[in-house]
Amino acid sequence: MPEAPLDWAVVMAGGIGSRFWPASRRARPKQLLPLAGERSLLRSTVERIRELVPPERTLVVTSAALAEATRAELPELPPANVLAEPLGRNTAPCVGWAAAHVRRSDASARIMVLPADHHIGDEAAYREVLRRGLGACEGGALVTVGIEPTRPETGYGYIETGEAEAEGVHAVRRFVEKPNRRRAEQFLAAGGFLWNSGMFFFRADAILAAIEAHLPGLATGLAAFDEAAARGQESAAVEGGYADLPNVSLDHGIMEKAQDVRVVPGSFGWSDLGSWTTAWELADKDAEGNASASDALFVDAHGNYASAPAGKLVALVGVEGLVIVDTPDALLVVPRERAQEVKAVVSALAAQDDPRR
Amino acid sequence: MPEAPLDWAVVMAGGIGSRFWPASRRARPKQLLPLAGERSLLRSTVERIRELVPPERTLVVTSAALAEATRAELPELPPANVLAEPLGRNTAPCVGWAAAHVRRSDASARIMVLPADHHIGDEAAYREVLRRGLGACEGGALVTVGIEPTRPETGYGYIETGEAEAEGVHAVRRFVEKPNRRRAEQFLAAGGFLWNSGMFFFRADAILAAIEAHLPGLATGLAAFDEAAARGQESAAVEGGYADLPNVSLDHGIMEKAQDVRVVPGSFGWSDLGSWTTAWELADKDAEGNASASDALFVDAHGNYASAPAGKLVALVGVEGLVIVDTPDALLVVPRERAQEVKAVVSALAAQDDPRR
Questions:
Q1: A312, B318: Cβ pair inside 8 Å?
Q2: Does residue B200 contact residue B144 with C-beta atoms inside 8 Å?
Q3: Shortest Cα distance from A53 to chain B (angstroms)?
Q4: pLDDT by residue (tens digit) across B43-66?
Q5: I need a surface site. Which of A80, B68, B100, B118 has the fewest CB within 10 A?
Q6: Cβ contacts (< 8 Å) between A295 and chain B: which residues?
Q7: Model confidence over A194-228: pLDDT tens digits?
Q8: Contact yes or no for A315 and B308 at CB 8 A
Q9: Do A317 and B345 touch (CB under 8 A)?
């Protein structure tokens, strides 16, 4: 891989992850938690790409509120590599700003954009897909990764593949919004539909050209940041100008409109870790289907997920399919299949300005 | 009530209450917990009889392990009024030893014997029954209180009433062991069957005479304690001799055998607080049937009981009929109707010598 030294990674780590309350909090969101292993999801993301991209060329975009915690979690990164958004404006400004950073070093550098809060089961297969994605964007294409679906999932967008452009690289026929159950089943039966993973590959100049073409307001804002950066005043420009950037996703704002868009199909034990339900699915379980991230005692209990601080005993008697997450100041009990609804708790706490949110 | 100054109370407070784990522990059993209100069950017991019997004539019998905590909970009692059993020998030795104490002051004093861990809903009605019980034992009878049943309960023994001896005082036809469901329903339909409450009234000399007649081994042991007490050495005698006392209940050992046994029917919102299920039944509940002894947030949750330390939030989403009891080092989740099974947790912890039992 002679071109490897020029590649960059952009890790999107601005999520608030309220679906993992009470483990996740405003000041300690999902990506900073060890939800599937011993290391935080963010650290896992950075470490598993290290053989492709070193820390010096890994940028992490997060919120200003989380910048300090993010730098502390990744001390091997130069502090300036953690870009702090004054407020969230969805993924197009996030990726655009990071690409502008990369362009200042090397306009033709290839960039891989990765969410900070996903789980990867097969890291070798994953890196193989990353290498393929980098190769596919070499000539200026915008490339995404599509996950081979294993169930009729209604929680993800889909990508319909077009004809093969190279080995393991397809044209994109179209992006499809989250389907209903019936359509999701049709997609699975038909084949040729992949889950939209939120991972991207492109050259810095290619994505910035696409932004200029399809999101001129964003291009103008990024040009102002570049200009301020040349004067050593980028922070002030970002602080003052970020709110004016268009609030739009990279998918909607660019990928669905651009011409040369490709998809690399992948199958590497991917999970977006969307809720406690997923945490249970990924966890080691006993013969009764119980998973515990702590000291637990199960008496005629089945299919439960229990997490509590070290030294604390969780005793479950005669209960089934529950998620129980205990922290020093808040405890959640919810059926596994309703774990998404924890967002209602966080909303209720926010409405009362409760600090435990 | 001219005779009131001579009355004594004996509060039986030796229970271990493992059914209230994790709130109850070896060192902090049920009677020391505020399970139905702000005060501990033990303190409530002593305070609600204060207008009948002052602290100086209230004896509390507990285990040696709990003597210090019991004295701390009831600082208004003379420390010597807390009698510490070196080991539990059921209720006959407990009551006999306390009666021997009373006899040293006044052989003809009337004694009311009360469990420390019951809940009383209507305290005025309760005290009326206590006054009636004291009156009924005046002439030497052994008197018990029978609760008017409100459901076909299979968890209690029953007392079948005989003819009326005075207003609100009946002869006892027989004591009945815990019935099966069918018999309990027959009792309820037939009338004349009362729940055996474990409360008793008798003169000190009367119960000690009955012990001499029906449990001579206990009488011999108590005589040895009296003799040692006269020499100021009762503690050593109890320490050395308690294990030799017969391990039998007052019901089986005395009440079922004695001649002049009476029962005072009562109806005063009585509950033996047998499990977390009962705690939920007695607690104030919201419109959805949820009760919480702490800061709680219920989202589409019904009929739950939640208890946690101060400052901790319990969030229940989409769950029904659960008991959730959180403490700093242990958390219990169990369906309300299976709350009795928490004993299995305590047994498992004891088998592993886990200090959290």
A1: no
A2: yes
A3: 42
A4: 999 999 999 999 999 999 999 999
A5: A80
A6: none
A7: 999 999 999 999 999 999 999 999 999 999 999 99
A8: no
A9: yes
SS3 at position B72: helix
Fold of B4-271: Spore Coat Polysaccharide Biosynthesis Protein SpsA; Chain A (3.90.550)
Q: How far A27 CA lies from chain B's nearest CA (Å)? A: 18
DSSP string covering A137-174: TTTS-EEEEEEPPSS--SSS-EEEEEEEEETTEEEEEE
Distances (CA, A) of A352 to A117, A323, B287, B294, B324: 28, 25, 21, 17, 24
Cα angle value A222/A225/A231 (rounded, 5°): 150
What residue segments make up the domains of chain A, in order of their start?
4-271, 276-351
Instruction: Compute the count of residue pairs across chains A and B with CB atoms less than 8 Å apart.
Output: 114
Cβ-contact B34, B136 below 8 angstroms: no
pLDDT higher than threshold 90 for residue A18: no
The residues near A111 (Cβ < 8 Å, ≥ 6 apart) are: A7, A8, A9, A10, A98, A99, A102, A200, A201, A202, A203, A204, A207
Tell me, yes or no, if A330 comes closer than 8 A to chain B by beta carbon: yes
- Do residues B269 and B123 make contact, with C-beta atoms less than 8 angstroms apart? no
Q: Does A297 touch chain B (CB under 8 A)?
A: yes
Residue A140, phi then psi, degrees to nearest 5: 110, 0
B353 contacts chain A (CB < 8 A): no
The verdict on B261 touching A (C-beta cutoff 8 Å) is no
